[in-house]
Design goal:
By secondary structure, the chain is mainly alpha-helical. It folds into three domains: about 90 residues, Fumarase C, Chain B, domain 1 (Orthogonal Bundle), CATH 1.10.275; about 240 residues, Up-down Bundle (Fumarase C, Chain A, domain 2); about 60 residues, Ribonucleotide Reductase Protein R1, domain 1, CATH 1.10.40. The strands form three sheets. A two-stranded antiparallel sheet has the order 1-2. A hairpin with a 2-residue loop joins β1 and β2. The longest helix has about 40 residues. The model has no long low-confidence stretch (mean pLDDT about 95).
């Protein structure tokens, strides 16, 4: 496709993933395009015939040596031209998996392979034996190669900021109001640890495959070859074709039951929800002036207001995470429900799996870009702390409780809840006027908005 053709395609694309954002989600498209699905189906069918040739007598010696290499190359060298040929056949068959079968028979003849083996292509299978090995394999490989590493990039970026900003005091806000101070690095450590756990759970999700014939009982296989243990064959085949990434579901209908996929969708939602929370907090810190944003030459923040530098990356991430999670929740609820042994509603829904993954991947890129633009505005952090001496009240009343001072909470409440901010002088005067032991008063003098930041061990984030 020429640059002009690509630009024209992107201008007329129905979804932004294939238009405006096409280049940013290319790694996901490698696994979830129509061409990718056809390629994975071909891979399953090719490897199935090889496994079958090692099992049934009629195929012994058919796929060996150069013949085996030629047959494997059909999947290994699968091209866009091959995908187009499959779609051309489908226009006649009106069935996508049958089109793959006919395509493979053409390839069999073109390779000059033994005639006896051709009719064993797709032997005993239903379409969903092919689809429900191909599709979970697509997901498993995309997750391990693209998605999980991208989420871990964000975990790493958050950990780096937790370490870099570990000693920067910052006013905390609960209910939007000033609260006991924290450390900027600690707040990023919160997201780093939350996301790390969620990503670990995502990475641990099982990926199940269905491979058992028209209604899950190997009926066709069993009537043709009753002497073979077809469930054991299928277990071995699924493990082999997926390099151990898939586990065959033992009891199924015509389709897989999608429980593993639903668990994956929910795990991905949890990751995305944590990132959405991060984006909203980062957006708020920018609005408070705690962060400035690096400016790109030539970039415009507003068509009317020249001064604007908006937190657009966090906003982009938030919007795309919402779209991703809405689709993931729908798929997790819809796919495990099927009428009796099968209806077709799962097929059309499952084709959309790449959409939430694309939006999630896009959001991750935006969030990382936003983080890389942030620079700490130390003056604003210090000013907010200086203007909120009332936040020392918790520490002061707690020390006074230890010293058996009468009604310390009530005394600090009267000092700080007057309708106007408690100043440094108000707090200092209160401390100096207390009838407490000298060592207690010395401790109270050390409590300032800049020092009262609590404990934070950042060692796990050290480079």
């Amino acid at each position: 496709m020429s640059d002009a053709e690509r630009e024209n395609y992107e201008l007329h694309a129905l979804t932004p993933l294939d238009g405006r954002y096409a280049s940013r989600v290319a790694p996901v498209r490698e696994y979830f395009s129509e061409a990718a699905l056809i390629k994975y189906r071909v891979r399953v069918e090719v490897e199935y015939l090889i496994s079958l040739s090692e099992t049934v007598a009629e195929l012994r010696g058919v796929l060996v040596g150069d013949g085996l290499a030629a047959w494997r190359s059909v999947a290994a060298d699968f091209s866009d031209a091959d995908a187009r040929r499959c779609k051309e056949i489908e226009r006649t068959t009106n069935h996508d998996v049958k089109a793959v079968e006919y395509f493979l028979k053409e390839k069999w003849d073109a390779a000059g392979l033994a005639g006896r083996g051709k009719e064993f292509i797709h032997f005993g299978l239903t379409s969903q034996d092919v689809n429900h090995v191909a599709q979970p394999l697509m997901l498993a490989e995309c997750a391990s190669a693209v998605l999980v590493p991208r989420y871990r990039d964000l975990v790493k970026a958050l950990g780096e900021r937790a370490w870099l900003w570990r000693d920067k005091p910052m006013l905390a806000r609960t209910h939007g109001q000033s609260a006991s101070p924290t450390r900027l690095g600690k707040e990023f450590a919160v997201f780093a640890t939350r996301l790390a756990r969620a990503v670990a759970a995502l990475d641990a999700c099982a990926h199940g495959a269905k491979f058992g014939g028209a209604t899950g009982g190997f009926n066709a296989h069993g009537v043709a070859y009753p002497e073979h243990d077809w469930p054991a064959f299928a277990d071995a085949f699924v493990a082999k074709v997926s390099n151990g990434k898939l586990v065959r579901q033992k009891h199924t209908t015509q389709i897989e039951h999608y429980d593993d996929l639903a668990a994956f969708c929910h795990a991905l939602c949890r990751c995305n929800t944590i990132i959405l929370d991060l984006c909203r907090d980062a957006w708020t810190y920018v609005s408070l002036g705690y962060f400035a944003q690096k400016v790109a030459a030539g970039e415009v923040g507003s068509s009317a207001m020249p001064h604007k530098v908006n937190p657009i990356d966090f906003e982009n991430a938030e919007g795309n995470l919402g779209i991703a999670n809405a689709a993931l929740v729908h798929l997790a609820a819809k796919l495990p429900v099927s009428r009796l042994q099968r209806d077709l509603s799962d097929s059309t829904a499952l084709r959309a799996l790449g959409v939430p993954l694309g939006h999630a991947y896009l959001a991750l890129g935006s969030c990382l870009k936003g983080l890389n633009k942030l620079t700490v505005n130390d003056a604003v952090l210090e000013r907010d702390l200086d203007n909120n001496w009332a936040v020392c009240a918790e520490g002061i009343q707690t020390v006074l409780r230890k010293a058996a001072y009468p009604n310390p909470y009530e005394a600090l409440k009267a000092l700080t809840r007057t309708g106007k901010p408690a100043t440094e002088q108000d707090i200092r005067s209160f401390v100096e006027g207390l009838d407490v032991a000298p060592d207690v008063k010395a401790t109270l003098r050390t409590i300032t908005p800049h020092s009262y930041v609590g404990a934070f061990d950042a060692s796990e984030f050290a480079p």
